Amino acid sequence: MKLALTYNVKKETDEEISSSVKDAKNSVTSKYINRELVENYPERIDDTYAEWDSMETIDAVKAALESGGHDVMLVEADENAYERLKELKPEFVFNVAEGYYGASRESQIPAMLEMLNIPFTGSDSITIGICHDKSRCKEILSYYNIPNSKFFISDIQFDSNNLEFPQFVKPLHEGSSKGIYNSSLANNKEELISEIARIKECYNQPALVEDFIGGKEFTVAMLGNGENVKVLPIVELNLDFVPEGFNKIYSYEVKWFFDTRENQLDIFTCPAKVDEKIYKQIEKVCKDAYKVLRIRDWARIDVRLDKNNVPNIIEINPLPGILPDPRDNSCYPKAARHGGMDYNAMINAVLNEAVKRNS
Ligand SMILES: Nc1ncnc2c1ncn2[C@@H]1O[C@H](COP(=O)(O)OP(=O)(O)O)[C@@H](O)[C@H]1O
Ligand SMILES: [Mg+2]
Description:
By secondary structure, the chain is α+β, with helices and mostly antiparallel strands.
């Protein structure tokens, strides 16, 4: 097939990196991070592009699709994307684009493709947009009684008197642990107010404030559609490996500073070692969430157990991260590997699910 791969890419040239390092050391975000981390990892402080893929990932996805016998054209999801797609007229699009601006930035390429009537992998513009706004996603889960933490949005309603601490504070519409730092766990009203201010200052958006769900954490890779949706082997996060002095959360610090290629944290177990009943409950809650949000083809769902061992949905990623190098500890490819698919097989499996759905 004649395919296009739509994507956004992180800054990569030496010049771009050195200017972002300079900015990073003085960036708003760096004010809130442990100073030692700012000194040791300046190139990683600026989380502006945390969600975007590296060229290594884009090349790996392209090579995987080519190994499936397809011709692949690269289309960067910038302001020229619509014209490019219109001109190139691909038969099908493999979409991993996160978009540039706005809460619905992940919906922009899907919306363009819908307008051009070009079929593509993954969820449609509505579902992608809803999942990207974590509160909208939680509202739907709650309507269907799918467990997720109680929450409020800082700009809409803020009554700290009836809150049970700790509370968890995150940007309303980001991913890749962007904006989720050790300080996101607020133990009292003062910390909560300061975290809400941090989100506003650094990310110019409201904060989502949630009850903290403190039990075991899992992430669940899903593949397929309708009754045939498959849950790949569940990945468990062993948060005990988070360095001492840091909260047991999968924060930006853990994801991008402590768990590096050179120095991998032994943070994941796949398949998860939990008793069978809980394993099944996690699978069920993820399938339910996938269904009510009308997710298509693939997604990765984060889950934590509450104090009664009930699996709660933390968030849903209809565009999961897919770093190709196993040393990068990317969870969708990890689950796929444990499910018997190497990187190329995984990418082509996603494409095949999308093609099947469209035929
Ligand atoms: N309500 C919560 N209770 C407990 N931990 C949470 C909660 N929300 C998020 N976390 C922790 O923060 C991490 C990142 O949050 P998440 O919403 O998944 O953000 P991202 O979209 O950046 O992955 C989770 O993997 C989990 O460790
Ligand atoms: Mg997550």
